[in-house]
């Protein structure tokens, strides 16, 4: 009797589980079909600025200042994002000597030209933490001695072109409104509300939650061994484009990085130091751009959408070399901490476009000024 009861219960639980699995798969398939249907071309080749964006931006700045205040490390104010650097390293960025004519734009106008540059490699978190913790990894590059008018009126004395990236191709929010909602929920400690703001399922951002989870990925073996994406779009002369920086080991001497102890908090810095400083082997990358085809679903105003490579391939415009060097000294590390990288530091030919970039213009400036002024008071 008891055995029959157990067998029936087991069969019932098994069937229920199968049903739930089937329903889950059906739900997933419907979600995918809905998403594919929603995300079809064509799109605008121009920026479309929604009403109320400026007010939302001011709100976000207040939240960002709150985060910086919460995360100050003993006496120093750190960046609001990408606070921990693995190092700032000297880089050489060489425009392809045989670059196609239509790709000769802005700092890539002169084939064969080599720019001296600085590259900051970082973890994405607002607070310095162990490198083994899942996180986005950042790369920021600053080209020096770039002639021409700078985009920001108060940067006219400077001559730089920055490229700011992290190692995931799309962002966990689409636009400024969603960003405000998301960070406000997170800053208030209501993490679930960041992606599920209300009871109405139409407000749930399941796809964006998956992007956020995928962005927080395990650490690469070294900061030189992962691909970094602009995520948001930029002008590229008259075209619109995204860019990425990808490891290009074939352009450098063969090198096998000795296995690092990933239990050490800063093993990504150690990996960089081992290659460039101890073993004195350079690291190589290619810088590539992906031009928008507005006939395809390649939107400017939605950073959650990865532009498909089958719609528009990436094209190499420059090679980047990190020469062997000693970068890990107290003086150079302090200098690194005091540098500011900003997608808006640069030329009109590479103007950042789209809502998330318009937001970054205001936020990076406000936060960078805030931490520099607080640090100057110390
Ligand atoms: C398109 C997506 C984004 C990418 C690829 C990106 C990437 C980065 C990287 C790599 C850094 C570190 C720069 C450095 O090494 O100094 C950084 C810093 C920063 N990011 Fe972003 N970010 C993105 C979006 C945003 C957004 C939407 C915000 C906020 C509105 C934001 C706020 C900041 C701030 C405040 C800093 C620190 C600036 C400083 O104090 O110098 N980022 N970002």
From TrEMBL:
- The source organism is Pseudomonas lini
Tell me its EC number(s), please.
1.11.1.6
Q: Which InterPro entries match?
A: Catalase, Catalase_core, Catalase_sf
**Catalase core domain segment(s):** 79-322
Q: State which residue ranges cross the membrane.
A: 12-34
State a single Pfam family of this protein. Catalase
Cite the entry's keywords alphabetically: Membrane, Transmembrane, Transmembrane helix
- Quote the PROSITE patterns the UniProt record gives: CATALASE_3 (PS51402)
PANTHER family (UniProt xref): DOMAIN PROTEIN, PUTATIVE (AFU_ORTHOLOGUE AFUA_5G01990)-RELATED, DOMAIN PROTEIN, PUTATIVE (AFU_ORTHOLOGUE AFUA_5G01990)-RELATED-RELATED
Name a single GO biological process: response to oxidative stress
* Organism domain of life: Bacteria
**What would be an example GO MF term here?**
catalase activity
Keyword DNA repair present in the record's keywords: the answer is no
Q: What is this protein called?
A: catalase
